[in-house]
User: Fold these one by one.
Assistant:
Number 1:
Amino acid sequence: MTGIALRMLRFHKGGFLASFAGLFLGALIVVGCGGLLETGIRAAAPPQRLAAAPIVVTGDQRYHGTVEELIFPERARLDAALTAKIGAVPGVAAAVPDVSFPAALASHGAVTGHNWPSARLTPYRLAQGAAPSGPGQIVLGENLAGRAGLRLGGQVELLVHGTAERFRIVGLAAGTGDVFVADAEAGRLAGRPGEIDSVGVLLAPGADTGRVARAVESAVGATAAGSGPAVLTGDDRGRAEDPGLIEGTDDLIPLAAAFGSLAALAMVFVVAGTVSLSIRQRERQTALLRAVGATPGQLRRMILAETMILAVAATALACWPAPWFGRWLLKAFVHGGVVSDSVAFRSGAFPLIAGAGLALTAALGAAFMAAHQAARTRPAEALAEAALQRRWFSVVRLVLGVLCLGGGAALAVGTAGSDGPDAGGVATPAALVWTIAFGLLGPIMARAISAALTRPVRALSGLAGELATANARARTARLTTAVMPVMLATGLALSLTYLQTTQSDGARRAFEQAQRADLVLTSTAGGLPLDAVDTVRGIPGVAAATAQIASRGFVEPATAPAPPGGGDEEESAGPQPTALALQGITPQGADRTTAYRAATGTLTALQGDTIALPTRYATGHRLGDTIAMRLGDGTRTRLRLIATIDARRGYETALVPAALLAPHTGTGLVPRILISADPGTDRTALATALTSIGHPGLQLTDREGLAAAQQDQDHTQATMAWLVLAVVVGYAIISLINTQALATAERRREFGLMRLVGATRRQILRMMAVEASLVAAAGITLGLLIAALTLIPAGLSVLDSALPGGPSWILTATVAAALALTIITTLTATRIALRGGPDSTG
Amino acid sequence: MIGMTNFLREAPAGDGGAAGAPGRADAVRLTSVRKVYGGARNAVVALDDVSVGLRKGTFTAIMGPSGSGKSTLLQCAAGLDRPTSGSVVLDGVELTSLGERERTRLRRRRIGFVFQAFNLLPALTVHDNVALPLRLAGRRPERGAVEEVLERVGLGGRLRSRPAELSGGQQQRVAIARALITRPAVLFGDEPTGALDTGTAREVLGLLREAVEEAGQTVVMVTHDPVAAAHADRALFLADGRLAGELDRPTVERVAARMTRLGADGAGR
């Protein structure tokens, strides 16, 4: 049948064009996501600044023995003495310490500083001047100097580690925007003299990277079980530049997977629709084939062959621009600040094969659905003058549809029961399953809805309405095909958009509930020293001041997850640590600046090695118990439980003393001080007093400013979701247009007949407008139903209300857009079909 | 007219064996065939206890007013549709006990069809349309067989044409060629001349007649046109799903007279 299928393809180009477009775009998205998935899995961040060092030794950020392969987000630093030890390993030409620190130019914002010797590891070379050799000397990157208008020999004020320091510009480095100081200065400015971030290893000529790496491992005491620093080669070296990188790329994996499967699902619907439309266009031909001896199996094979030829061509063609598309998506994520810009897009053969495989499977599924219908054509229809549609609905479809409804219900219950921040993760597949269920049961639903609409439509629109409803009822299959993309676009757009806004609302509400401060003091110099809290508290008009440091930590299970030395798979699958948000605070006045309230115990006892746990995480412990914790940089610590806190599920935070947490964060400083003002205090005077406490780069934000900043951060996280949404909904919209156009063009003959019996162009257009409204109404109703079934449980979980968060204009706009698109596309296609005049009954 | 020589003359030799005594045996035999459409409440009886045998090598016209059940009779006889009850034996094979797939297989081996219109796949050339039943059966047409059968229907030069490039009469001739390529036990026609002008219709009917006379082909044709029926050996008349008489060696006048009476009867009810 392949030969006949090919001939059919060549002859009915128009009908297949829609399928081809759907297949091509779908495959493009699916294969592109495959590339993104591989990028996430590999988390390949080829080193940029450390590119010249074949081996990099850095602190081990992995939480060994955990099933999820947890990563410590704060940098674990190395002893500077390690450099000499590594330098002595045979085959090592030079071991170069690397120290980086955040800083800011008083006039030109944030920059990154390094020790000058590490410039060799890129390498950066001096364009002018000399290397910094002592205190007060700095080398600026040319890019920065150009931007800030600074010249060799000039002075620059650097805000770093909570202070402001003046440097003389002794040199300019080519090709960078960073700043460099001498070794000892870098340690001091990073706030950790005697500690370094990494050691870059340069090899002696002829030395083998692998062999030297092993020698370095044994020299520094690195073992597979995870004691000692990590020795990195190849792309892994990028992890030394940014320890938080892996966490960022972790997000890519579920996102790319969800995105790819969404696109594949949409593809099944879209292609099944266009294929069955193209089959319907040659209904009599299929009947003729049956009459002259094609078995249902042969017919099925023919449809499958046709679709697969198209799918293979479309997928092959899509594989070419797909990496470009994946790269574009990644770039958008980087731009949105979700993924580090050092992550390299990696798309090998695997995502191409997997993506193409998924795309072909989707096409095959669609072809099966359509072919199943075509094969049921009865041969006697070849003799019938007017081919009216049979009811195309099988028991298999009904059973599958009901099963999917069950799955949707199960996921809805799961969504409602999950933690606020996790609800989206359950609700997205729920939206998918509901969509599949409704797609399978589409014929029944579309029929029911159009039947319900028949009366009002007839009452409203006279003859046009009568004709339109008669058409809709006589041709349920065609109606269903037209309704499905409207349902898909509306349902997905509404579910995904409101899911996003609901989660943003949930995060904002949690933030606002936790925040009681009137003012927040921050510094562009990387933070404030801890004693600044006391200074602030002493200012007249300040009722309370609290330092606040955000980090993450892990509650260790009762038994250590991995006994040192035994990295055994089976042993490591024991009790797992619990990750949770950590906040370091100074307890004095915290009841006035934050919303944290002790359920048991008291927060004022938060001094020394103590912790206050959210109630949920404190089960099994009593006040006074010792909790084994790992801090953000992996440091083991044992803290006494002094209080438990009530909090919304999923937004819980554990509290520790700020003094305990600060040394285990990047800068060791306090990033923000929360301030409550005395009632009736002159705010302007207070602001002046607060910003002149003798620390550089101070900035004061009020409540609104803070909420805005939080929202900005939220938007960053939402960027990914919005982007995904735009692409999937865009695809659904294209297929909506595609299907409506095809379904209308198919009726050229019918329009010709109507014109012959005296219908004017206007009357036909009116009839089609009513029909399109009917299709849109049915599709929107089903889409709303999908959205409601997805969003109500999500709303219950995140916001404790059945209504999702987010503005109502999105609903209005989506419904209006679906209606407008359906009607405009249908009428345009009708107009084109009518162009030939009444005789052209092709 | 066009000579139906070698190709068709050879045809019955290989195929007639299965049905027992050649010449005398029935190519199709319907016994107490009943066909009801619709459900219990809105049942329409299309065929009501019809029994008829159609002999090998004869040309039969089935006639009757609209709604008399003549198309249903053809569909049941050709295995396109399954009767509600009764038996249909085609070329020695009981059709009613066969499944959809087996009926399809039998159809493409033993039966040829010519419909009123829309006989050809527009995507395929004339040659490929004719070869289609063989291709569907998974066979390659014998070398020259397609060319030869097209030569016989007078379209030897149009092998590579597409149906859209042919006139209505030419398309029907291609359809006849396609129906004959498998050397079927029976060729069924459903108003094969219904969409043609008188002259072209006569040519097409002539082709069918020649197939019967020169090659011993069995032809069964549904028509409402007395002129078409006059080309047949025998005309069967249907009214309200029942047999309402028959004419041997019908002429236009006698057929027309019978039809007028049937029509009047029908209208009188």
Number 2:
Amino acid sequence: MGAQIRVYRQKIASTSSMKKIFKAMELIATSRIGKARDRVAASMPYANAITRAVSAVSSQQDIDHVLTAESDNPRRSAVLIMASDRGMAGAYSANVLRHAEELLEKLRSEGKEVDTYLVGRKAQGYFDFRHREYKKVWTGNTDAPQFETAKEIGEALVSAFLQNTDEGGVDEIHVVYTEFHSLVKQSPTVVRLLPLEVVEEEITEDTELLPLYEYEPAPEDVLDALLPKYIESRIFSAMLQAAASELANRQRAMKSAGDNASDLIKEYTLLMNNARQAEITQELTELIAGADALNAS
Amino acid sequence: MAELEVEIVAEDRFVWSGPAQSVSARTIDGEIGILPGHTPLLAVLGDGDVVVTTADGQTVTARAEGGFFSVNHDRVEIVAGSATLDGEARGDSAA
């Protein structure tokens, strides 16, 4: 009987130490998410400015630029997948990977070869475990992305895009990341980064007509300079949103894990008390039975 | 007198905004000065300082690297890879 109580006591002890970890992870995520959201907001002016400029240039000028030209017969695609470095975030990485998997399936069914680029150790682990190939991987800091990383990714993708398809280049680039809508809503999203779809969503009723800019230097050169930056900015903003989503997911997952741990502790405490009561009752019965037996003799 | 509305943004943050008398910057082709009433322009920045003379006569200098700026209806948007401010106006910059 005593053994049973000891088992329950051990379970309670281990569950409460886990609960402490969950609680700590939740607090960390909560404290970081504010910063992550601020960073998403802080990157908006730049993203908006560059989007405005790119759409102004590409809508006005009939420029044949490599980055806007759509290939007639796309044969190779690149897919950039943004997952997290760590677990403890519920289904966050799994959701992204599932969406990526669907996209890969779709691209393959269209007869395209796919190069994958990964962000985050979870994505890397997923691919390594299945012995799948990937072109390149960036890990570390998925919950606090650096602009330098976005720049590196941008350069890698743009140079793959500019390369001839026959020499291992790609015709289109997709990104799979988790869009951050609010603390309670994040959704995995697939966007095509290149070639540019020159329709920007930011059209409101009072949108002014885009001005007829003069360019310095020539429009082609301006576009040359702008587009890689535009790509970097898109990737960076995707990374920031993914980071905010990761933290929001982690916070939620750790909250429910902590709640579950509390429930378990309650349950085990009840069972332990039951066992103790049973033990005491049994001891008493044994004593009384013993005394009765002595009296009777 | 008409004024320029100037906004400086960097990749990861908002740097400065405010009314100004003039802006001078270095594009990859050479120096350029912007006064109110300038024709719409989109130019690529070279390495160098962007000097903004604010409405009250102070100057704001931003080291803007690798970016561009656009002028449209007296709105100047300076978009830089990285921008750091120096000069007296540092205290006014939005945190």
